[in-house]
Write a structure and sequence with these properties.
single chain, alpha+beta, four-stranded antiparallel beta sheet, 8 strands, elongated
Length: 132
Amino acid sequence: PGPPAQAVLWCDTCCVVLTRLDTVDEVHSYSCSHCKQAFSEADATKLRNRCAICRECPECGVRVVVSQYQGVCFLTCSFCRWSSRALGVEGPDPDRVVALALERERSTPTATRFRDLVQAGVAESGRGGAGG
């Protein structure tokens, strides 16, 4: 006797019956490491695998929050007192502050160099270079 009917799968590609021992389950989910909020793959790509709310202080690594003073929103750290206002990352609403922070992160020399390396690697693999 084999496994029960509900425990087997038919593979259209291989034309064979498979059990759970023959397969691998892949779970594709994204969540924030700080607040555990789940978000979509599109948001994970856009927000660099972080939720739209949580950010880390560039000085000490503690979670920063959006603060508002005289109608201007900005990021602040309650531990080391860092503020994004010194960098000009402020705006009329929290969404604009987060968008500005992401723009700044993407335009750093390190991020630019990383993008260049990835593009060069993709181009090389397309030509059948290294490892191919």
